[in-house]
């Protein structure tokens, strides 16, 4: 009898456990940066426009801008922003509304790196 080789299992991604917080473009979240919104467009520190569901802030010495992280329950997010309090493995998730950011609050999440 011919044996069909089992397909190689997908390698288990290397999950990183981290704390996630949330922010929006308001003055409470961004302080003086909130005043710099030409035409109401929210630009991140990388120059990319902030988009809810995509934009996160991270420590650029670990996750440089453009790094794609798959965050459990959130999906693929792109490092586009940074912040003084965002150090180490911590990530900060962008929301369009301050209420949504508050609702997200502070959570333990896990993610893995999709690209470098
Ligand atoms: Zn806010």
Automatic annotation (TrEMBL):
Keywords linked to the UniProt accession: Signal
Signal sequence residues: none
Transmembrane parts of this sequence: none
Coiled coil, from the record: none
Domain 3D, first and last residues per copy: 55-115
Pfam families according to UniProt: 3D
The name this protein goes by in its record: 3D domain-containing protein
Organism: Dysosmobacter acutus
